[in-house]
Amino acid sequence: MRYTTFGRTGLRMSELVLGAMTFGEQGGVGAPIEECRRILDAYAEAGGNAVDTAINYRGGASEEILGELLVGRRDRFVVATKYTVTRDPADPNGGGNHRKNLRLSLETSLRRLRTDHIDIYWVHIWDRHTPIDETMRALDDAVTAGKVLYIGVSDTPAWVVSRANTLAEWRGWTPFAGLQVPYSLINRDAERELMPMAEAYGLTVTAWSPLGGGVLSGKYGSAAPGERTRLNRDAISDRDLGVARVVQDVAGELGVTPAQVALAWTRRRNGVLPIIGARTLDQLRDNLGCTAVTLPPELVTRLEAATGFDLGFPADFIAQTTPWVLGAAAL
């Protein structure tokens, strides 16, 4: 396992992040604690050191299980959790990115994780009702208090993140060092605005659902064209199944698994760390194998052609009009 720094900080993270959303059996299919222990141990033995969870995963069980599994070795890991999602649906202030929810959510996570600080504290999703300067100041206060070391933001428009880090720069607050987005061959939307913004600000990108909700793992490849299959409450489209079939073909040519090909494609982009989530030890070991997979350029082109993705306006328009705008200076 190789390591990289988290954004423009000195914090070193492994190239694969372990997602703890599967830790616990509450609210659906997940892993019991003993399987979680085996998963975490195997990940650590492979050199992994970053674990990602959230206050709401498995109704809080994910944080509780992770806290128990980290006893005696907590400082060897980069522990990341998130806040925003409501702690109490009946409480008007139970959720959101305002200072009150941040404080109460942070104290809850610290208690569950059995630690006195969070290494990376993520804003889970944009709260349109809370001014971003309130959120950034409250996060900076948590850093100043020593309860949070670094901060990141997930599932938020690029313009909001850009404004947040500009405010932080002007006012001497702690800026976001990381961005968390869904990113896979199934979903490349982040390439339009979010990833260019992350590159400009030096943010590390942690990619959730790098297997496209499991579609790219290969287990749905046997579905016939047009057949509807339920996955995480959403029907898998014919387009997604087509992408999965190309991933399977490439995997067969390379002698690896479809999941390893999909993860290798995601991690080939500079600054992107896939979040791998597993319910079993075998799934984890398969995912870890992606670090040994190198995709030749011609296969990358083939995989990306299958997605039918384009950047759209304004990126395509800007590219098309470059000679008109810059004349002889256009490259």
TrEMBL record:
Q: Which Pfam families match?
A: Aldo_ket_red
Q: Name one GO molecular function term.
A: oxidoreductase activity
Q: Which InterPro entries match?
A: AKR_Detox_Biosynth, NAD(P)_OxRdtase_dom_sf, NADP_OxRdtase_dom
Coiled-coil stretches: none
Task: Report whether Oxidoreductase shows up as a keyword of the record.
Answer: yes
- Could you list this entry's UniProt keywords, alphabetically sorted: Oxidoreductase
Q: Where is the NADP-dependent oxidoreductase domain?
A: 15-305
Q: Does the keyword Translocase apply?
A: no
Cellular compartments per GO CC: cytosol
Task: Name the Gene3D superfamilies on file.
Answer: NADP-dependent oxidoreductase domain
Q: CDD domains, from UniProt?
A: AKR_AKR9A_9B
The record's annotation in PANTHER family points to: NAD(P)-LINKED OXIDOREDUCTASE SUPERFAMILY PROTEIN, NADH-SPECIFIC METHYLGLYOXAL REDUCTASE-RELATED
| Name assigned to this protein | Putative aldo/keto reductase
Q: Which lineage do the record's taxonomy fields give for this organism?
A: Bacteria, Bacillati, Actinomycetota, Actinomycetes, Micromonosporales
